[in-house]
Amino acid sequence: MTSEEPAARRKASNGDDSIYWDQSKQRYVGAISLGYTPDGKRRRPKVSGKTKTEVRTKLRELRKELAVGVQPSSRHTIEVAVNKWLVRGLRGRDDATVKTYRSLASNHVIPDLGKAKTHELSADEVDEWLTAKADELSHETLKRIRSILRRSIAQAQRERVVGRNVADLVELPQGKEGRPSKSLTLEEAQAVLRARQGSWIHAYVVLALLVGVRTEEERPLTWSHVHIDTDGEDRPHIDVWRSVRRRGETKTRKSKRSLTMPHYAADVLAQHRRRQQVECTTTGIEWKDSQLVFPDLDGTQRSSTNVLRNLRVLLKDAGLPAPRSWTTRELRTSFVSLLSDHGTPIEVIARVVGHSGTQTTETVYRKQIRPVITEGAEAMDEIFKSDSV
């Protein structure tokens, strides 16, 4: 036998660890004999490596895990761990969140690490994987794929398949900078507010751009939360109490708020409501306050994709370059930017948009939230004079 050939396999004594060369895998394999299971199957967990030294190190680690009750399995891979977590770890999450995590797992975690045995994956391997991914993914996406791996291994820990979570031992590298959000200039915003007047998407854009409502808060909005006819008691306002999240809750506690509408927005919403009422009368459907403000053709809640598609048509009609580069959330970014450019204090803006950083506390009294926040509407009335839109 030459010095380059693997040593011949030696038969191990009872209770010994054995190391042998696996020709089919072209790797050394180490095994520990743990007797038999109640059904008569041999319990023999294995590790593998390129050298005997590597295998001996892995066997020592395996012995330590076994000593604390961990029972590694050669069949339990990262793919198995991730798929189990996708089923069990996302219970109660909204559909969009589940879809996002499944996509990230299928496109990044499973293809790259899926075949690795859960108990053999090392911190160095995870570090190398994340470092490579940092060249192609944004920092936020990088955080999410590490979170998927960490939570999947944590579940494997609970199942006593692995002793430690190697994803916790790795620092997250800095990913690529995400695309910065854009904001409409005043001139662009005026052009947008003139486009497709009389359509539902125009009313939708007015509410987002002039009141600062999130798109996830607009889509489930019903007329019972839009107060246009206030009989002089209050200015027209909307109650932002719900979102498209799984249980309907707003993004944060501070997001639950009532917002006064600028005069122009109130007029547009009033016209939009009249059109809906006429349409209901024409089709023989009873109009109710519980109806959605921006329903799809079948009366159900519009999808975010549907809104985005219609928004980009409106932006094209408004003459904006590259309308497909805009997203619905950038209407809200524009709202903040326009208020800031107008000199509105940042504390007021935070309060209007429902950011948790504000110190103002709103309390729910009956069916309204007090105080109804008026500063944003007053500023927008000044920014967009009646002859501007």
Tell me what the structure shows.
The protein has three domains: 17-67; 78-169, Orthogonal Bundle (DNA polymerase, domain 1); 186-383, hpI Integrase, Chain A, CATH 1.10.443. The chain has helices spanning 52-67, 78-88, 95-113, 123-133, 139-158, 186-194, 200-211, 215-218, 263-283, 304-317, 329-341, 346-353, 375-383; strands spanning 17-22, 27-32, 46-49, 226-227, 237-240, 257-260, 363-365, 368-370. Helix 2 (78-88) packs antiparallel against helix 3, helix 3 crosses helix 5 and helix 7 (200-211) packs antiparallel against helix 9. The chain is mostly helical and 389 residues long. The protein is elongated, with a radius of gyration of 30 Å. It is built from 13 helices and eight strands. A three-stranded antiparallel sheet has the order 1-2-3, with helices on one face. A three-stranded antiparallel sheet has the order 4-5-6. Strands 7-8 form a two-stranded antiparallel ribbon.
Number of domains: 3
Topology pattern, helix = H, strand = E: EEEHHHHHHHHEEEHHHHEEH
Query: Would you tell me which CATH topology of the largest domain applies?
Result: hpI Integrase, Chain A
What is the helical fraction, as a range of percent? 40-55%
Mean pLDDT: 79
Give the count of helical stretches.
Answer: 13
CATH class label of the largest domain: Mainly Alpha
What sort of overall outline do the alpha carbons produce when their principal axes are compared?
elongated
Work out the radius of gyration: 30 Å
Q: Give the low-confidence spans.
A: 1-5, 7-15, 243-254, 357-373
